[in-house]
Amino acid sequence: MSTFLTYTILGLVLGSVYSIAASGLVLTYNTSGIFNFAHGAQAMFGTFLYWHVTERWGWPVWLALIVVVGLAGPAMGAALHAVIMRGLRGTADVTKIIVTVAVLLGTVYLAQWIWNPDEAHTVGMFFGAGAKITVGGVVVRYHEIVCLAAAVAIAAGLRVLFTRSRTGVVMRGSVDDPDLLRRNGHDPERAAMLSWALGSTLAVLAGVLIVPISGGGLDANALTLLVIDAFAAAMFGRLRSIPRTFAGAMVLGLAANYVLAYLPSAGTFTGNLRVSLPMIILFTVLVVLPQDRLRGAAVRTRERYRVPAVRAAAVWAAALVAAVYLYSLLLPESGVTTFALGMTFAIIALSLTVLTGYAGELNLAPLAFGAVATVVAFHFGVEGTGLAARMNIQGVLLAVVAAALVGGLVALPALRLRGLYLALATMAFGEFLSNMVLRDTTEHHLFGTTFTLFPDGSLVVPPLKVGPLDLRDGTTFLMTATVLFALIAVGLAALRNGGYGRRLAAMKDSPAASAMLGQNLVRLKLSVFMISAAIAGLGGVLMSSATGTVAQENFSFTGSLALLMLVVVAGIGYLSGALVGGLMAGVGSAVLVSTFGDLALANEGMATIYTALGHLVLVGTALVGMGVGRNPSGFVHDIIDGYRAMRDAKPVLYGAGALGAVLYVLALTDVIGTWTFALIALCAAMLLPVVGRSYLAERRTRPVPLELAGVDEPYTDELRARLDRELGLTAALEKGGARVTA
Amino acid sequence: MSLLETKAITVRFGGNTAVDDVGLTVDEGRITGLIGPNGAGKTTMFNTITGLQKPASGQVLLDGDDITKLSPAKRARRGMARTFQRLELFLSLSVRDNVRVAGDILRSGTRKRFDLDEETDKVLERTGLTDIAGRDVSDIPIGRARVVEVARALMTSPRVLLLDEPASGQTERETEAFAGMLTGLAAEGLAVCLVEHDLPLVMRLCATIHVLDYGALIASGTPREIKESPEVIAAYIGTEEASHG
Ligand SMILES: Nc1ncnc2c1ncn2[C@@H]1O[C@H](COP(=O)(O)OP(=O)(O)OP(=O)(O)O)[C@@H](O)[C@H]1O
Ligand SMILES: [Mg+2]
Fold first, then answer.
1. Which GO terms describe its molecular function (chain A) (predicted)?
2. What's the topology of domain A2-275?
3. Which of A250, A281, A276, A265 is nearest to A9 (CA)?
């Protein structure tokens, strides 16, 4: 009995903290329409601040609370709103999610920069762990009473705010109809800013409260994932109702503690189950939620992508394979290996192109599907041992199928609902997998067989061998990965140009209209999610085997989110965006950070500067991600536009080609270094459109005879207007146009 | 029996009733008008008929079958097609692909095979869009964009076509051509339901007209009967005064 009481109280306390975190999430979501994936990250950052002022600077608790929870919390939220979030009105849901994901990553990188993750940071309870009372034989600490009281007060306060006060009513209305509010003399932006400030404060408070009751150790990643617990609770109220969120939080807290109390504690299973509970509950809630109202193209999104013809894609793919081969000749052995790793990330990135770029759905845990595939391939595809061990092709195929099937299972419950729910489900699944499978080091007995999912917490994944093709050799691996990337990319281009691709585009642009043409949206989303998961699975197996030995960290949520963010920054609608984004995620930041690390080791005097630069690169990528709201099509889009304009500047292109060839020969004969070559080539590629434009501008000054217009010159709007003028069509056109605007 | 029929449809948004106990019919081979002042509930009625909006009560019958519980996609496959007042074009596709994708969708679920390219060209020809087939839908004038929505709907070879203000934004010449096309479609046996604020156009094209006001059906009949109905006149004059005052 007293066990039951003890765990009930602990459950209610944990539920209280979840409730505080979750209500902050509900608040910002309802007022600004943005689901804040960085909510947990804000909690984490605030809690580190609290640790800093209390432990480092020795401030008293009350002062720390006033400054951190009372000032820094709201300031952080208000700043986020003012600088980033208010610019997101009218952007696609995907963009909104990516921006908050970038904030999440940026906050984590920043925290790891300021507070070295290798050192322990502990936060104590209010009034100390010894301050307690005993009620009916059960010990209750003062800190826990504070949690309970705060949660009840906050839930009641928010309910009153939402239902009774004018500000609250304005807050609720500012998502649904900001224009109406504006006409009535309210300011929806002010309401949104207020809710961000309040939401952020609640996050920080939840962080300061939860760390002491969950062991006291402050861990940037773990606390960032508080957002999953929070949204699991908020799902009970469909991300809208505060009282139901409160109830959901309590259910979550109690369930977590009863699992600890009553399930056998042998092995890793119970502990893993406990951390996975939010995800299990989340999926249950997803299944029972009623279907969403179908929505039309609610916003006129600013994203625009050009679709390549299959032939063009094939030519580019061949060029890519050739270029990678030529470049690999310049690289040392280790460089080839790193490059190959990057290429496997690019394959995983293609899974995002088809899912997000083509179909407008989101997967926040692409690496988790890579992990599923890796585990399957490891168990079913490895032949031989030690250095002679190889992965067979059946294992890889099985792994790909498994990834697709698991993808289907994960997506299915969320598909009836809006894209946000699918994103949440995938993120929760990623965490579930991290906890339940990648930490599952105990032996299981099932149907007479004994197996361990993740022996020793890491898997040694050998390279693939198909007939004479042995990927043990670095260059062979790189070229195989590149060819695979090229093949999948061409396949996706063909897919996008076919009926299936058009249907995806239609669903992305207007779910309502495509349903009204007879499209079964759930089936289409399911199929594309499975295709995407299969590609992620293939890339994942290759990534694991390129890495050699993989552990939980190789599939972490930060890795998945960073990959997604970089692909979006590069251009999620483009196959080349997948290439660039994947390479940046797989090689780019790793190489830059480790280069700075090496430099720091080599030059002790400059060590701090180099280490700082390394961190700066990471934070910088996140900053670029936050700016994606301004250029949602990605930078590849601009580059492609630049090059398209140059098709007529043939001499410039030939010149550039010649320069490239000369540089390459110089690099091959060791006259210039590989790095110099890469840098010059990169600069030249970036500058080429600029040179081409000025060349074209000069040529344009000589007007083309009208009869030849459009023959060897692109048929521009300007030209069309000129033709219209010459043919006397202007008057008629303007007459027609006048009525249109009426 | 009418091809499409609604029985006592009521739709509520929170406390306010947008459609109140409305029963109307749409017949094959004719154009049926649905008119009413702004906010009368016409679009809500369309949403309910097509399954985008769940009614609080009432039924939708197609060919005598109760389809109230069916999904929009299933209704579409039974021959229902519509256009949207707030355009719902597929902005990342060209004009031609906007039309063609309707064929792609139809073909994906069934074994029905036909030459999509040819079919698409025919529909484009008929709706007069051939000259802009290659353009992006995002940069054509709104009047033509509305025709693209009609063409897309026609691509599904529907039995019932619901048009929500298709002529707004069209030039006079475009409207003329559009009216001719509608008459032709009806003559071929299509059941057309037309929501339109251009009253002379409605009076000219429609065999039957239903009038909504504040969610209630206040009159149904021939254009002549509607023109003379005191309730209709009152409803329209009421809004005239409101909009002038
Ligand atoms: N999703 C919704 N939520 C709340 N109220 C709605 C919603 N959709 C429509 N309404 C309300 O229902 C009523 C009917 O709207 P509806 O759009 O059907 O009118 P309509 O006859 O199509 O008008 P219009 O001629 O302006 O297009 C209006 O008062 C409108 O404000
Ligand atoms: Mg309407």
1. branched-chain amino acid transmembrane transporter activity
2. ABC transporter involved in vitamin B12 uptake, BtuC (1.10.3470)
3. A250
Gap between the Cα atoms of A721 and A729, Å rounded = 9
Question: Which of ligand 1's atoms lies nearest the C-alpha of B42?
Answer: 21
CA pair distance B68, B75, nearest whole angstrom: 9
Q: Whose CA is closest to B168, among B194, B193, B140, B197?
A: B197
Measure CA B149 to chain center: 10
Q: What atom of ligand 1 comes closest to residue B53's alpha carbon?
A: 1
3-state SS, residue B26? strand
Note whether B74 and B91 are same-domain residues: no
- Predicted confidence (pLDDT) at residue A95 exceeds the cutoff of 50: yes
Mean local confidence (pLDDT), A597-622: 77
3-state DSSP call for residue B31? strand
Q: Residue B147 sits in which domain range?
A: 86-157
Confidence of residue A742 (pLDDT cuts 50, 70, 90): very low
Task: State how far the Cα of A476 lies from the Cα of A545, in Å rounded to an integer.
Answer: 13
Coil, strand, or helix at residue A372? helix
Q: Above 90 in pLDDT, residue A676?
A: no
Average pLDDT in the A361-379 region?
94
Which of chain B's residues have a Cβ under 8 Å away from the Cβ of A502? 93, 97, 100-101, 104
A176 at the B interface (CB within 8 A)?
Answer: no
Nearest CB partner across the interface for A510, out of B77, B88, B155: B88
Contacts with A, B 104-143, CB within 8 Å:
104-109, 116, 141-143
Number of domains in chain B: 2
Amino acid of residue A243? P
In this complex, do B106 and A518 lie within 8 Å of one another by their Cβ atoms? Answer: yes
Q: Say whether both B62 and B141 belong to one domain.
A: no
Minimal Cβ distance to A740: which of B72, B73, B169:
B169
Q: Which residues of A534-543 are buried (b: 16+ CB within 10 A; e: fewer)?
A: bbbbbbbbbb
Q: pLDDT at position A702, please? A: 55
Q: Does an H or E element contain A383, and which? A: strand A382-383
Q: Domain ranges in chain A?
A: 2-275, 310-438+451-465+478-648, 706-741
pLDDT of residue A503: 95
A518 in contact with chain B, both atoms CB, cutoff 8 A:
yes
The one-letter amino acid code at A435 reads: N
The confidence score (pLDDT) of residue B98 equals 96
pLDDT at A549: 86
Q: Are B189 and B153 in the same domain?
A: no
Pocket residues: Cβ below 6 A from ligand 1: B 13, 18, 36, 38-44, 85
- pLDDT score recorded for residue A399: 96
- A522 CB-contact burial (10 Å; exposed 0-12 / middle 13-18 / buried 19+): middle
